[in-house]
Write a structure and sequence with these properties.
single chain, alpha+beta, Thrombin, subunit H, Jelly Rolls, 6-stranded antiparallel barrel, 5-stranded antiparallel sheet, globular, disordered N terminus, disulfide bond, zymogen, Pept_S1_alpha_lytic
Amino acid sequence: MRRTSFRAVTVATATATLIAAGITAASAGTAAGTDAPDASRYAPGLVAAMERDLGLDTAEAIDRLRTDEALSATAHTLIKSLEATSLEKQYAGSWVEGDELYVAVTDKTAAAQVRAAGATAVTVDRSLAALDRIATRAYEAAPEADVASAYVDVESNTVVLEVAEGAKAAATKAVRAAGVPAGSVSVVEVAEMPRTFINVIGGNAYYIGGARCSVGFSATGGFVTAGHCGVRGATTSQPSGTFQVSSFPGNDYAYVNTGTDDTLVGAVNNYSGGTVNVAGSTAAAVGATVCRSGSTTGWHCGTIQALNASVTYAEGTVSGLIRTNVCAEPGDSGGSLLAGTQAQGMTSGGSGNCRSGGTTYFQPVNEALSAAGVSLITTGGGGGTPGGCSGEESAFSGSLSSGGQAAEPGTSGFTSGSGTITGCLDGPSGTDFDLYLQKVSGGAWTTVARAITTSPDERVTYTGTSGTYRWVVVSYTGSGSYTGGWSTP
């Protein structure tokens, strides 16, 4: 039996110091008094690719980039806020439409919190967690050979199950027999089944025997790419390396360790004579603009249609993927998906092509980095190794995998008198690390202060009474080493 995990997915982007204000600023467009929009802050070729693939003019493309960035940041902080107030079970997904951020919830209290943040609340019947469970049941119930993909459509609050032509009736019957709630799943036939984008002809990028794939993102000691490009122990050329981690099917990620003579650069080829810098790996929202780079078709853009999708290839099932309407072709496998300068994932497979358009799925990059135990190489060639917090009396350090947490300076904590406690955290570049201050109260640890921006670096200032305290470092996304420090009254 196939075992597919549809995990609840959150969205994020670069910065979220203001919530409602960020939404207002995003719709400002070109500044008053200027004759033309300024594209200089964006990577060469990025705006041009959006104009070509999305039918936008320069001003519209720049306005969309600004809007997507601000709205995705708001969604990221809002989801964290729901989690902090134990309302995460009511979350049902979020998406960007024009200059509006929509957040679906199943609870009136959660809806009020969404509106207070400046977003539009949509009250629905099913939470994202419930939809994930429905997707799993529907996906496993349908005949495996007929299933193309399954994903949660957050806008309709339903699950979409894609099947081969002529298989709709059988799949619908199987889903119904599995006890899936009526009206929760739409079965759709597709003209072409997805396939992995690997090619046996020569070209740029890197090679595995007679096959060609594309580099995803530079990481500590090598790069991440698609798992279907090579098994563990396989060797590559141009650049030369060895697959040290590979997972496919189930997942579709791999890590290739390269030689010491290779220069690892935190950038992506835009196939317009330049590169796009990689600043981090914070996930973007459904509906956000993304662009893909691959060695067959170059640089193409589109939007995120769904998160945590599952796909059936001839080789088996892959789950937890990003679904997009960006085109791709064989040989693009393993290539980079970016939202602005934020790494999103590596090309897995899909259907269609770049002449008529298509659907492409991407393996999220943070899962690959965490599995390999490496850090993303970001702008300037850095590997994500943080510096220390300066000016504090005491220090701590450690490392985390994505989603992990650690108590500092240990589970027993430290004592402090009445007054102001300050603390700082310096996390790996390209990650989202958070810092919590907890105090013993009634025999249990209770959070009294926190810093949960989208940055890897955080700072907390808290004024309280004497007692026993501790810091908790949490990796919201990304992995790597961190340092921190604190001072007591």
